[in-house]
Amino acid sequence: MIPTLPDTQKTRTGAASGWMPVIRLVVAMTVATLLTGCGDAEVNSALDSDANGYVCLGCKAQFYTDRTVFPTRCPDCKKQNFEQAIGYVCAADKHTTIGPRGRGGMACKQCGAITTGLSIPREAELKAWGATHRAGPEVTGN
Question: Of 65, 80, 104, 107, most Cβ neighbours within 10 A?
């Protein structure tokens, strides 16, 4: 005869036991988030800006708008042929080269190495690059 446990000592089955893997997953995700959250400040800083920069691919105009304004056309040639301006950060000398968003790195204007990092340029960087501030009506046609 096979010994069995009394009903009060049997292991639980059913809905209550199904929650244990979910609880373990939530705890694991929380711990992982807390451990990796320490380096987020640098990433958030690189992705935050007080302005939106653009370069027209047709007439090469460099312009920027307030953070809340998104253009529908170039203020100079009035065409929709423009790209967001991105900061390409060189790993060798930490210099940021601003240019149109593209599919790869860009040559660093200071040392010539191919850039590997990205950032969103702030208003001061866009001005130093030669971009001019444009108001909403100039870039939206309204």
Answer: 65
